[in-house]
Amino acid sequence: MAEKFVEQITSRDVDFAQWYTDIVKKAELIDYSSVRGCMVLRPLGYALWENIQREMDKRFKERGVENVYMPLFIPESLLQKEKDHVEGFAPEVAWVTYGGSEKLQERLCVRPTSETLFCEYYANNIHSYRDLPKLHNQWCSVVRWEKTTRPFLRSLEFLWQEGHTAHKNEEDARAFTIEMLNLYAKFCEEFLAIPVVKGRKTDKEKFAGAKETYTMEALMHDGKALQAGTSHYFGDGFAKAFGIQYSDENNKLQYVHQTSWGVSTRIIGAVIMVHSDDNGLVLPPKLAPTQVIIIPIAQHKDGVLDKAEEIKDRLEGNSREGQALPLRSIRVKIDTSDKAPGWKFSEYEMKGVPIRLEIGPKDIENGQCVLVRRDTHEKIFVGLDEVEAKVTELLEQIHRDMLARARENLENNTQSAKTFEEFKEKVNKGFVKAMWCGDLECEMKIKEETSATSRCIPEEQEKISDTCICCGKKAKTMVYWGKAY
Question: Measured between alpha carbons, how far is 295 from 298 in angstroms, rounded to an integer?
Fold first, then answer.
């Protein structure tokens, strides 16, 4: 068992909620502000979001999505245009009623989401079939007046991206809705090492104003689900409410069909709860702002810092002689502070840096360095002439191993239930696959008696039994159920 440098973190198996809070504080991801439920994203916490934003934005643009920016404020009259939408968000809306010392003639909503703003924009800018599709996204913050808050998972103000598109017909809009859901799921696996379950939300759980909502659900270490991202098909409901029409190829007026899709900073919470351990944060290599931290041992001795700098240059693809080396995108830092090596080990373990590289006089004499994996604490001795290749290989291996462990956790904690009693026994341990008749009454009863909610209806259906888990009537569909954040 690896030596535990960090003693100030509550064990996740003793108190998972306190463990999570300890991680986000001790790893210096967030700080609390003077406004209840609003968080300060510290440099490491914001760097994680920057890396998510950079990679996701690249993937959006490869699909033809363009970034825009909408106003922070929404006039009340605009918000009221789509009844289901406004009713769904009414309890969480923050209102501006004064401008300076003057009372406003019309209240302004601080955006909880931007559907109405995009609809107003599309109504003014879509006229012909040649204008379609409109594929837009914005990176911004939104405000929702939550009663209970937790860092990253639920706060009054949070950062996210919200995509909004307009299409000529239902077929195109539905296809794009699923395409973005799949983009999200692929991003989670390839960049965050998090496997997800994909499917459609029930009518009770769908987004306010949507015809259909699709979700990707991740399973946390404690067996609870986290909605990691959603993609919505709106149909032409918003278009009719806002008058978004275009002239088709036959010069006839048609209503557009719309989609919306989003991922927020809550996905950082997922990374923490899926991968981290009792020693602190564990970051997937592609997400980590620093992938390799170099710790010089006995750095006051001749040659140690020079060798550390040389290794850093090589890992970054720079030559001290000014010659270009093969391009490497490894993000490296050296800690040359006067802190003791053990203190540095603890600090970067807490902050989740994937690889620690130790180099000292004896290592230089032996033509080697030491690599330590953050995820497994394995120590590897590597010759200095092969350090670039080994680090590159190791970063890829760490990602694969983290994804495999997360997938194993998902598979081991996804069970099936045929009776309500069996369901109640298993629902505290992860996802439960069970049949449902489709009635809201049963969905509400399951939540009331178990605190579990329907997470999604997967496209690939299994027949667990013939009858509904709750009422015993003929089942219509198999649903993933679980307790959630």
Answer: 10
